[in-house]
Backbone:
């Protein structure tokens, strides 16, 4: 018999987090709490130069005077920042190890996640920098990349090996004082990725980082800095999963992209952190600041598939500074149970003839709340700026919410700004039609959702698109109304 | 093949089917005719297992198996196919992708591996030629922006792909111009065999000129009030349903 809403809801409730396991790895964890000493200790632990320590302290002092933002359409118990440990490194981590030397427990963890290192090694043309908790465990393909002059390494190493680049660019797109979480990240970030593509170089492979949170009660504050020099090209993939935890875990990342004249950056994210259980207990708080600056003729595309986290606060943005620069944002955000997402983008048009495209697909199920929040701003000097925005929402059941908050500020008469929005619901008639063709309800939902999200899924690199589709299915198993 | 015994069904508490008896054997074509609201589409939905309809009495059997506790998708796997009167749109899902999923889900239920892409392409080519379907059509989103005729032709294309045992065509002729009707009818005729059966639900005699039924049944007020050969359809065309309504009222 076909499903009734009640039956479906029940099934949805019994759905457990697929990746809710915990791998027991000995780690080296700092005591809880945050003060200048902890900031200095982190810097010391990372063997950082003095300028970096000072940079962190500046950020910490700013952070102390700031308040958590309250404007987002999300409601949660504010984390106690003095009850978090700000450093946790797996003890077995050693950057000099080869992949074969990696702790078998870790490898097992990746196997469970379906992103095993073994599997990744087989994925040709994918260089992987894996971040487990706070320290990069292994970096592959470094040598191949080095031949092209491409630098791809943990940011902690870059601080030591390429201080001139880090010093020049870090904090230029997302300043320390940008916002509460960015300031916190600037003070306590433990690792992340650094990438530099030299002038005129097309990065021959997709660069990839997997982040996950493992240790209980630790926050993860990773920082990514990606610089594409003039006329270069890079495609960067970032994937996230985290094991199941009862208490909320904080994640406050900063990503800065710098696309110099004529450069192109594609930045793709699949985020599947623990969303909390069916009662809305636990889950990751994902407060992320991602921003790109585009110089003349440069192009940046953000593509994100957000299925995890209890609370998401994330607006990958583009500052279109140079003339003729292009910014794109393609997003799929899925919320289920008690998840809350407030996500979108900011497109700041400063240069002449700058163009931006925003395609946002929100899918809400259970009792979740899914908000799109976007700003399109056209500066007075940005002659001929163009924007196209499309925000589509798909609802399942009668207890979830979809919201759209588009902000448009045009200060130039020549600006052309278009905004389209739709809201739809998966219909029983659609489900029955699929059932009649031999497709069960879960598969039918996956099919309908994938169809709904197609424009965005198509923007992902091939191997990522397959993973993302799988993730959409997992996230929505059994949910419809 | 399909045996319906004293079937009663409600929708939202209202009785629509009031004791249907029908036996359809392999190799046969049955036409079910009747005025609006007589229960024709309800019968089709109940056979397909749509649980918006509550079966209160009687049974539907497929090859001797009672379908009462069989889900719609399992019925499909067992060979029940319904060509919908109003096919739904599924944006972003191409006809090809939809068919691939449907075929592989059926195979999975039978413990078979996915159909190799090569075979799938061959099958699609073969069946689309049968229904004179342009290959470009197959990459479009399912039923999205399709004309009435395209939707119906797409339903029969799906029937051709899935090769059901019992195909119920619910008003497949409505919305078709004469050329499309001819193509669809010729497709159905080519798919007909001694091993499968077709139930045509229609208002008009027109379709039956192209797909000739072995039996014609007239449904009125949730009951089959008259059964006969193909000549019954002509008689209905001539006299209208009022004739029957009067006759059965007596």
Residues:
């Amino acid at each position: 018999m076909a499903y009734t809403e009640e039956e479906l809801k029940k099934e949805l409730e019994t759905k457990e987090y697929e990746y809710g396991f915990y791998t027991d790895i000995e780690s080296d964890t700092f005591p809880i709490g945050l003060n200048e000493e902890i900031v200095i200790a982190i810097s010391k632990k990372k063997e950082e130069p003095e300028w970096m320590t000072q940079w962190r302290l500046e950020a910490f002092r700013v952070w102390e005077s700031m308040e958590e933002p309250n404007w987002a359409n999300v409601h949660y118990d504010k984390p106690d920042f003095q009850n978090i440990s700000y450093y946790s490194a797996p003890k077995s981590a050693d950057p000099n190890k080869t992949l074969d030397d990696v702790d078998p427990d870790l490898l097992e963890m990746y196997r469970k996640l379906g992103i095993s290192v073994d599997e990744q090694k087989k994925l040709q043309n994918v260089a992987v920098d894996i971040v487990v908790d706070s320290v990069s465990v292994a970096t592959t393909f470094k040598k191949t990349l080095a031949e092209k002059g491409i630098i791809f390494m943990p940011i902690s190493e870059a601080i030591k090996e390429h201080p001139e680049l880090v010093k020049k660019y870090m904090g230029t797109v997302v300043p320390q004082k940008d916002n509460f979480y960015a300031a916190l990240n600037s003070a306590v970030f433990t690792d992340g990725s650094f990438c530099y593509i030299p002038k005129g170089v097309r990065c021959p492979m997709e660069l990839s980082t997997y982040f996950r949170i493992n240790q209980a009660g630790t926050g993860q504050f990773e920082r990514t800095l990606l610089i594409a020099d003039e006329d270069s090209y890079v495609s960067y993939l970032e994937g996230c999963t985290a094991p199941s935890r009862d208490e909320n875990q904080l994640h406050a990342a900063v990503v800065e992209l710098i696309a110099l004249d004529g450069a192109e950056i594609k930045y793709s994210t699949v985020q599947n952190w623990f969303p909390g259980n069916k009662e809305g207990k636990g889950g990751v708080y994902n407060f992320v600041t991602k921003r790109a600056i585009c110089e003349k003729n440069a192009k940046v595309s953000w593509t994100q598939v957000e299925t995890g986290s209890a609370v998401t606060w994330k607006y990958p943005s583009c500052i279109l500074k140079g003339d003729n620069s292009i910014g794109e944002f393609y997003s799929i955000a899925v919320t289920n149970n008690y998840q809350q997402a407030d996500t979108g983008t900011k497109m700041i048009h400063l240069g002449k003839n700058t163009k931006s495209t925003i395609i946002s697909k929100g899918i809400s199920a259970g009792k979740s709340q899914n908000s799109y929040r976007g700003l399109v701003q056209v500066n007075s000097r940005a002659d001929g700026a163009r924007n196209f925005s499309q925000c589509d929402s798909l609802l399942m059941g009668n207890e979830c919410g979809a919201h759209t908050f588009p902000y448009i500020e045009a200060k130039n008469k020549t600006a052309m700004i278009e905004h389209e929005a739709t809201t739809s619901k998966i219909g029983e008639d659609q489900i029955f039609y699929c059932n009649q063709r031999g497709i069960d309800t879960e598969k039918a939902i996956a099919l309908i959702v994938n169809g709904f999200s197609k424009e965005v899924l198509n923007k992902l690199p091939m191997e990522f698109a397959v993973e993302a589709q799988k993730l959409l299915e997992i996230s929505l198993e059994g949910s419809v109304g | 093949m399909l045996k319906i015994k004293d079937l009663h069904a409600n929708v939202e508490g209202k009785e629509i089917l009031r004791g249907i008896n029908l036996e359809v054997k392999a190799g046969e074509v049955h036409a079910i005719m009747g005025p609006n609201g007589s229960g024709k589409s309800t019968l089709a939905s109940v056979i397909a297992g749509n649980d918006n309809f509550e079966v209160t009495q009687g049974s539907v059997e497929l090859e001797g198996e009672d379908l009462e506790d069989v889900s719609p998708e399992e019925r499909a796997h067992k060979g029940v196919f319904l060509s919908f009167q109003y096919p739904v749109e599924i944006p972003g899902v191409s006809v090809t992708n939809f068919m691939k999923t449907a075929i592989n889900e059926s195979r999975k239920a039978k413990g078979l591996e996915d159909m190799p892409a090569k075979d799938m392409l061959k099958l699609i080519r073969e069946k689309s030629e049968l229904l004179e379907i342009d290959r470009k059509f197959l990459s479009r989103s399912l039923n999205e922006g399709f004309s009435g005729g395209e939707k119906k032709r797409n339903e029969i294309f799906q029937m051709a792909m899935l090769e059901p045992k019992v195909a119920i065509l619910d008003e497949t002729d409505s919305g078709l111009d004469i050329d499309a009707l001819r193509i669809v009818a010729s497709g159905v005729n080519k798919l007909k065999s001694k091993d499968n059966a077709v139930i045509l639900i229609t208002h008009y005699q027109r379709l039956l000129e192209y797909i000739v039924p072995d039996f014609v049944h007239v449904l009125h007020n949730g009951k089959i009030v008259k059964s006969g050969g193909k000549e019954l359809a002509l008689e209905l065309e001539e006299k209208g349903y009022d004739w029957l309504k009067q006759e059965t009222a007596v």
